[in-house]
Amino acid sequence: MDRETIEKLLNENELTKVKNELKEMNEFDIASLIEDLPEELLIKAFRLLPKSKATDVFVNMDDDVQRNLITALTNKEATIIIEDMFSDDAADLFEEMPAVVISKLLKNVSSETRMSINKLLKYPDNSAGSLMAIEHIHLKKGLTINEAINRIRKHESEFVSYEAWYVTDNERRLLGYVDIKNLLLSDPNSLLDDIMKPCKHVLSTLMDQEDVAGIFKDYNYSTLPVVDLEARLVGIITIDDILDIIEEETTEDIEKMAAITPSDKTYMRTGVFETWKKRIPWLLLLMISATFTGKIISHFEDALSTYVVLTAFIPMLMDTGGNAGSQASVSVIRSLSLDEIEYRDTFKVLFKEFRVSLLCGITLAIANFFKLIFIDNVSNEIALIVCSTLVITVMVAKLIGSSLPILAKKIGFDPAVMASPFITTIVDACSLLIYFRIASMLLGI
């Protein structure tokens, strides 16, 4: 069933057909199918979902759709959804909602659910505390394997992962974990203390989500415990949350590299005015900084009037320099994000880029020399000026493109900011200066 079909059936009140179709579909597919429907039809379709699927469908919807839908449902319907959601998903839902709406929605939920959500909302944005789920079972030391299994069975609806169960002392301080294999294969009368393993990595509530994602990626974890400042177990983070974070961080870096202020909304759900606000600050900054290029050309106006042919090669030199700088910056930004290089590796990076730029510059200069002589029919003198400029411009561009992201990270800025548009503007000015200086020396102007 596609969107047009379900919209037609809903408009014709063929509700039984819609209900039967949705009942057989996966929760993610249902969310993708109905979230773009007009609000009235969306609510109608959502109410046709089986109760066992409704919450999972809701969680898979876009954030804006979730907020609009939850406020459009009755208090009873909204309460059922919120009570059935895991605490981290509920906290994400409320994060951008007005306080008045949050108060209204939380008024009807249980005190336990209200406390769980409020607790997560107090942690800083993009921290492990705001990301974690507090639905987990902690097994106390001293329990036998049989007692631990019985506790898990009794509270199985209270946790989000079956990968590991964490063992704590009487003050909830984390001691270690047991996995499902050891739990099932061990003697039922033996103690948890005998089979538990130490946790190699433990997350703190204030740890940045990007660092959390790095640990999951590097060590292939599917779940990790989160502790507070007193080492007490307060929640867990699972791999499904990390996949969302990786997508979010990657999108943010791409937007910064394109000189766009990051947004947490999808492209189609971002309005024209909001998109304008995200893009115009950088465009204004880059436009103003590009005036230096115009100043340089104006300064060498006499030289250009004498040797008009020089003007024809300005776009090629600027574009080549910008592209060379962008290649270097993107490679370095990627390596910085993967923690492959650090500030102490600056000299190694610059030395490598110097050698790469020398090879690239000479190759481009040789190819361009033959083009200038045999196709453009310029003099040897002009060809020498353009090719020399090309070699030096590529070298300067790659050194700038590789060093600025490292410097940005060192002083606390996001390296992605030092990407294509910003570096291209700098390299454009440098390439013109190099071009006209060489032309002045060789032509005596």
Structure description:
With 445 residues, this protein is mainly α. The chain contains 23 helices and six strands. It has helices at 3-11, 15-23, 27-34, 39-47, 51-59, 63-72, 75-84, 87-94, 99-106, 111-121, 128-131, 145-154, 180-185, 192-195, 209-219, 239-257, 272-289, 291-299, 301-306, 314-337, 346-374, 380-410, 420-443, and strands at 138-140, 164-168, 174-179, 203-204, 223-227, 233-238. The strands form two sheets. Strands 1-2-3 form a three-stranded mixed β-sheet. Strand 5 (223-227) and strand 6 (233-238) form a beta hairpin. Helix 15 crosses helix 16 (239-257) and helix 18 (291-299) runs parallel beside helix 23 (420-443). It is elongated, with a radius of gyration of 30 Å. The termini are far apart.
